[in-house]
Every structure is written in C-alpha cells, then in structure tokens.
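Response to reviewer comment R2.3. The reviewers asked that we include at least one raw input/output pair. We reproduce the pair for Extracellular calcium-sensing receptor-like here without editing.
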Amino acid sequence: MAFLRLFWMGVIPTRRTRFVLLSFVLNLLFPCNSSPDLSLQCRMIPNTMPVLEKKGDIILGGLFSLHDMVEEQSLPFTSHPPKSKCTRFNFRTFRWMQTMIFAIEEINKEGKLLPNITVGYKIYDSCSTPHQALKAAMELMGGEKSSEVGEKTQRNSTCNESVPLVIGDGGSTQSLVVARFLGVFTVPQISYFSSCACLSDKKQFPAFLRTMPSDFFQVDALVQLVKHFGWTWVGVIAGDDAYGRGGANIFANEVTNLGVCIAFHRIIPKNRQQAEILSIISVIRLSGAKVILVFAVEQDAAALFDEVQRSELTGIQWLASEAWSTAAVLSTPEKYHNILQGTVGFAIQQANIPGLRDFLLRLNPSRSDAQTDPFLVSFWEEVFQCSLGVQTESREKEGESKPPCSGKEDLGNVTNIYSDVSQLRISYNVYKAVYAVAYALKAMKSCVKGEGPFFQRSCADPDVIQPWQLLHYLKQVQYLNSFASEIKFDENGDPAAMYDLVNWQMNPNGKIEFINIGKFDGMTGDVKQKLYIHEDIILWNGNRTRVPLSVCSTICPPGTRKAMRPSFPVCCYDCVAYAIECAQCPPKFWSNAERTACIPKRVEFLSFRDTMGITLVAISFIGSFSTCIVVLIFFCNRTTPIVRANNSALSFLLLLSLTLCFLCSLTFIGQPSKWSCMLRHTAFGISFVLCISCILGKTLVVLVAFNAKLPGSNVIKWFGPSQQKAIIAICTVTQVLICTVWLLVAPPAPRQLMPREEDFIILLCDEGSYIAFALVLSYIGLLAVLCLFLAFLARKLPDSFNEARLITFSMLIFCAVWIAFIPAYISSPGKYATVTEVFAILASSYGLLGCIFAPKCYMILLRPEKNTRKHLMSKAPSSKF
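Raw output as returned:
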C-alpha cells in the first residue's frame, strides 16, 4: 500500500491528472457519460444527488446520514441506474447537519477568527450506506463542469470546485470508504462520530482526523466497568459493520485477559431479518447471562430491542456502547422503558451551545432560502406527518397518504429529537470540528513569509488552498474553546478521550433521563484513577440498587469442588462433592472452619500490642521512674545522716542496679529473635546479681561494724568502701563469666512450639543450655540466701534505724517470689510462661525498692527531725523481730 501511494503521488504528481485517472477507474463501477478524451474533460454522470450548499470564499464539504437506509432496487444493467431512494429520515443526524451550518454562520457573523473571509458549505446525504457516502465524496471532489467564474475561488478548472476538507461521515463504515478515497488526494477529513479503532492507522488513512475518541478508549472504559463490578459472564452483541465488529472484538479480547468469560458473541444482521434476531434472543435465554453489551449503532440496537420487547425478555442489565448510550430513538418510546430502564453506558462529553435551539427552530418551508434546501421538505413532512404537495423522492410510500400541511407550522410546538438540545454530544463534536478547521485556516492565513512550515520556509497561498497544506495546520491545532475544553489532535488524529458514565433512570413523569454516575479519563496513566463511579446513585434494571450478578456458575459451597464442563469456558463448572477422606495438615498449618483447606497457624508470643504486654511495659516504666525519683531524693539530701550512713555510693549503685532490673523486663516482650533471646537472660542474670551484691556488701558492713568487740579493732578495716566494691565486683564478674560461657557454648535462640491439637504456634526463647540457665538462677539464689542469712543475724542490732531489718524483709519477699516462680513457670502455657517470668522480675524489684528505700524516703521527706546523727546513733535495742 505504501509503495502504491508513493507511485501515485510521484509518478502522477498533479491532483487534476490523478482525479481524471481515478474517474476512469470509478466509471467502470459507476457508469459515466462517454467522453472521447478523458484527459481534456472531467465528465461524470450529472449530479443526481441532492446537495445543500452555500457559496463562500472557502467551501467546507459535509457528509451526514440523514436517512437510515437505502431501498434496494433491481438493476437492469442496460441503462443508467435509477436514483437511489433513501428512507427513514433521522432527526438526530439532521440536527448534527444544522449544527455544522450554525457553527459556520457563527464564525462568519463574528468575523474574529477569519476576518474578511466567508466560509461556505456543501452538504450531502450519505444515507447510512458506504456506496452513497463514496458517491457524495466524489461529488465533493468535483463533478460537472462549472458555469461560474468566481471573484475569489479556491480552484479554476474545467471541473467543479472541489472542497479542501470534508466534515463527516458519521458511521465508521462510511468513513472507512470515504477516508480511503480522500486519502488519495490528501484531502483532510474530520469525522464527528466515527470511532472505529482502525481509523487511527495513519498508514492507511493519512488524512483522517476526528473529534470522536477511538474505540480503543471506549473499550478500555467498558473493560474497567466490567472489572469494577466483578461480572465474569458477559454476553456481546455487535452490529454488522466496522464499528460494531471492531469494537466488540477488541472488548472480547481485553476482558478475556482479565479472566472474564464471553457467554456468547452474536452479530445483528444489516437486513434486520427477524429470524436471525430471534436466534440471538434464544441464545440470550440459554446462556443465562444477566449482563450484555450491545456494541452497535442506534438503528441496529433498535432492531434488536424491538424483538427483545416482543419476546418479553426482561431482567437483563444492558451495557450501551457510545453510539446508542444517549440515543433518543431508544429512550423516548415508552415501549422500551421496561427493558432498557437501568441501562449503563459511556457517552462522550456534552456541552450547552448557546443559540443553537433558536437556530434549529428557524426552519420553515415558506422562507425564501428554503427553496435551496433539498432536505427540508422531507424533514417537515416527517415532523408533522403531512404532505406539502411537493414531489420528493422519499415523501411517501405507495398506498400511503398524508394530510396536507401549509408549511407555516411552528417547530417550537413540537417536541422531538431534533429540537432536544439537552444532550448535545455528537452535535458538540460537529461544532468542535468546524472550529478546528477555522483555527487551522487562521493559522494558515497568519503565516509570515520566510517563516513558513513548507519547502524553503514558504507559506501556503491563501487564495489557492491546497488540502495537504491545510492538513498540516489541522494537525497543529490546539486551542481552548468557550466551554473550557482543550481541542487538539494526537499523532493518530484522535482527540482526548473523556467519557461520561450514564445511567438510564425513570423520572416521576415516566420519561427516561440520562444520569451521570461517573467519568472515565483515558488520558490518565494510572489505571486505578481512570474510572470513577458514584455507585450510590445507580439504579439497575428493575429499579434495583444492588449490583446485578452475572456468573456462569456460583461459588462452590464447602465440601464441594469445581468440575469443569466439557466444551464450556473456564467460568462454567459444576460443584461436585469431595470424596470422604481427610488429609492431615502439615505441622505449621491448621484446618479452616469448613474443614476444606489448610491455613497457616497463628503465631503467638508476648507482644507489645497485647493488653498483657502493654500492662507489663507500663509497670516496668513506673518502677524505673520510681527508682529515678528515689535517686533524685537521695542526691538532693546526700549530706544528711541517713543517706551518708553505710556508704551512700553503695546506695546509688544499688538504685542503678534496680533501674536495670526494671528495664531488663522489656527484653522479654516482643517477637523473639536471636539477639533478644541472648540479651534477655544475660541482662536479667547480671542485673540481679549486681543488685544483690550491693545489698550483700551493705549487710556485711552493718554486721561487722556492730560486732567488733574491741575499740580500735582492725576487723572493720577489712570491710571499708574499697572492700565493699571488691565484693560487688567479684560477685558480678562471676555471673558475667557464667553468662559468657553460656553464650559461647549453647546460647539461647528462638524456638517454635507446635502443639498438634492447637491452632497456634508458640514462639519463645529456648534456653539453649538448661545447665547454664540453672547456674545463673542458682547463683542468684545463693547470693540471696546468704544475704538473707546475714541480714537475719543483724536484725536486732542496737540502732534507731536498723537497715539490716529492712534488708531482711526485702530478701524474704525476693526469695518468696522466686520460689513461687518455679512451679508457676513450669505450668504456664505458651506466652504466659514469659508473662510469669516478667512478673517475677518486676515483683522482686518492687520488693527490694519498697522495703529498702521506702522507709528512708519516708524519714527524709516526712520525718526530717529523725534524720539526725544523734537519733541514728542512739542505742535503743528492739525486742521486736
């Protein structure tokens, strides 16, 4: 194809010669008047197609399918074919055509975009068929010999003036044919309704642009819609044209990749044969699909829904393609309301064009300019169902008569699709297309000599517009229109893809309204942000608010499995009961509640998020904070006798060790790891040994000091401050050596306990070596018993504040806690064993803090009169414990 185009453009360089040669080829298909010399004349069959035209400096071509079909006629092949007879006048398309005229006249009237230039038009009816569209395109490229010599014309030749651009056609099938033909001459074409993705191929259609988004984006929107609502069993019905077949095929491929199954894929025949459409109805019933996409133009969709309504097929959630999602021909007749209420579909964005309604209602056959409009009589007679008495090609069928009308009837008194401007979507596309041409012409006229975009930086000749030059400027168009929408074309000639998601809802008056329930932005890169749906306002078919379910097979209940159906998609299966046999789950797994699958067991450990963990952390911090308060009290009163008595430095060291005891309990909370397991036991062992060593040093000093019989005895010298520190260091280093050997030989490590009859795994710290763990605890116990024994001996020493008695009570509590700990630890399950150990650490720490330091703080703060050397040195032996 590329080679042929190069040959065509290179070997046959002039547009005139190309047209003559093409006319010769086309005359083989479309009979022309014979001519002895085709190189001198461009003579085809005289113009037999009705045309609506208005002269101007620049003429824009227009193609609109004002009728829905062409009556088939028998061809004798012995004479010229009779004129084609178009039937079924389309009010909606007629409004589109009038919108083009409105936009052109608006540009001419304002004169801002194209000053001193008048834009005209030449519009044909393509009758919704490709061959009529091709005939009209050929007429636009030049027909009979012109009899006029214009003061300012686009071309000057023996052929009719050809237009530099065509706006249209609506249907994708017609646009495909026209685009191939116009592409030969590089005449730009802007379609307002053709959405076939195939038209984005610039190799095949180099001069095609459109203000209608490609079906690639529409299909993407429909796929995201199906995915959003979880439908896995969807039917697809397509029109028999490029739009329907192309879009439906892309949709089927895309949703299949998401795991959605296509229940059926059927085509609506163009001849609308009842038998074939009834077969589609039968397939719908048999499939069981509740969600069906109809990807077709409104005429094909209407043929389908006529049979659906006659067959009383209800309960279907219809998804509408853009071509009929807001079609009044389907939403206006009440006969469709019971089947189409709740329909959901995507529609291009709309706009309210000021002044358009008044412009539409201006039409009247009695106006002077109405005589040049070949479509007005058919329109008028169809609107008022009357006869103007004018002979027209499609006025009435044989045997059918209509009442006469005067032509003075008022369009404002009639409510129909033509005058309804509440949903200006395709009309807005036509409006944008006309203005895009105007902006391209403005850019062409504004070119500065020597700075142009063409050969040797030249500009286009404003008096002789070459279509390929106009195409260049059209591709560069980018402007913000009066509706705040940015108008531009991408490299494929496509506009930005923005869709409204509409829902067909019945209003209190019994009429269908199109309610916006969401948006789709095809230009957004993030898939999750492309589609927005306001689900709360959706009314589904049957006025239901619950999302319809469309699946081939429901989820199998517990105790059953999926069994695939032969020759069916994967979404279709039967639920078959399992054989009565049980499989044992692996050690780390547990049976679910339905006993149908093995699920991982939950892991259990003392966590910082547990209520128990949070409580223990709070108690630990309270103990640490209380110890810090005692340190502060002692530091502020460090010169008083009660603090200085029996080595105040030893008291501060004891308080430091108690703080470590409180904080080491935190290492037992949280998920066990290699390092936390090693830290928790060693920190616990060393902290408590340091604490008891300090108490042991204080007890020895008290006992030796009061039992030295001779004054000036040297025994007390062996238990001075240095000796006390040495005792503490030796006792602590011994525990450090035990812990070091433990960590080197068999360190503690995380371990999982998996009870077979429980649905959890206990994650705890294994001691590694039970002997080493026993040595650590035994050493602490040995020092505690020795300290208790010495304190017991010194309990009745004669002083007013006997610290030995306080140490005795603290050691009794300490030993009682740890003796009770052993059976409680062994019998506690899971994480509660760790809770028991942490509780023992905190309880013994609070016992030491309370028994040793609480009385001293009481005396310092509340009984300062007793905090004297005289009171402390008084010898008042106690007979109490």
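The chain has four domains: 51-70+84-142+162-212+354-386+418-484, 215-349+495-533, 560-604, 611-794+832-843. The mean pLDDT is 82. Further pairs are available on request from the corresponding author.
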